[in-house]
Structure to design on (265 residues):
């Protein structure tokens, strides 16, 4: 039954690259959060610089997928796995961008203002990091049930996003001189909320690879 | 195999004279229900 060994190797290689990219993205998020927590500019710069490596990995994965499509003409599950690898690489790249945005907050928001918002930002980022990690676990076996369960946690990030938004607006109303920094925080809040959406997308693609049906996990 | 996908609206997969699966070409080539159909169109046997 097992034929097309070269194609199976190609798919496995792409799978491994996605996981490597995911680990890199998770590390970037962790470092960015630590940089904000400890106000470590050097660590923040490292996160911003390493984003180029994540972007490069996305292009390499796309290239490998394109070659596999052109040379092997995959169908059914084989085709869906290739498509899903391209889509997941794209979502991981966007999550990497959000790690960069988080790292930039070290320079854009004063430690005093950041301290007020940090507990919620930390909770959102920790939730996001655990969702990225668990979505990659689900991707290893294309575990649709696990992917659905991971995506359901996005609601918690959304709730924190609403709380933090109200808090920042309140601060800006009370202290109009903080509008510049407050606006940076509003953007950061939005980026962390989007992070959860990108993990939800990854989970949807895992379900799609397994079933051939595209679910809307957090409508 | 690719030629069959390009020119047909409906596809049936026969194995040893028995219809294993039949349906729209889109479904058969993209998300077949039968494992043997999937293995055949993916080039894993036959």
């Amino acid at each position: 039954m097992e034929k097309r060994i070269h194609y199976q190797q190609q798919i496995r290689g792409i799978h491994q690259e996605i996981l490597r990219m995911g680990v890199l993205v998770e590390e970037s998020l962790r470092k960015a959060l630590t940089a904000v927590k400890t106000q470590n500019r050097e660590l923040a710069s490292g996160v911003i610089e390493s984003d180029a490596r994540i972007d490069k990995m996305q292009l390499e994965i796309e290239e490998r997928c394109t070659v596999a499509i052109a040379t092997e003409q995959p169908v059914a599950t084989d085709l869906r796995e290739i498509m899903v690898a391209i889509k997941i690489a794209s979502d991981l790249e966007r999550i990497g961008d959000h790690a960069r945005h988080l790292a930039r907050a070290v320079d854009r928001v004063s430690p005093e203002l950041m301290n007020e918002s940090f507990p919620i930002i930390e909770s959102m980022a920790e939730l996001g990091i655990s969702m990225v990690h668990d979505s990659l676990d689900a991707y290893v076996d294309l575990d649709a049930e696990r992917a659905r369960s991971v995506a359901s946690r996005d609601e918690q990030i959304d709730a924190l996003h609403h709380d933090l938004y109200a808090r920042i607006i309140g601060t800006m109303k009370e202290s109009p001189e903080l509008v510049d920094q407050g606006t940076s925080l509003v953007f950061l809040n939005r980026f962390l909320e989007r992070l959860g959406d990108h993990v939800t997308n990854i989970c949807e693609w895992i379900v799609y690879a397994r079933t051939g049906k595209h679910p809307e996990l957090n409508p | 195999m690719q030629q069959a996908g390009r020119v047909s609206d409906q596809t049936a997969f026969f194995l040893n004279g028995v219809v294993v699966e039949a349906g729209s070409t889109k479904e058969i080539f993209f998300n077949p229900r039968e494992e043997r159909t999937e293995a055949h169109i993916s080039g894993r046997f036959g």
Remarks:
- The two ends of chain B are 11 Å apart (CA to CA).
- Chain B is about 40% helix and 30% strand.
- Chain B touches chain A at residues 1-2, 5, 29-32, 38-39, 41-45 (CB under 8 Å).
- Chain B has one domain: 2-41.
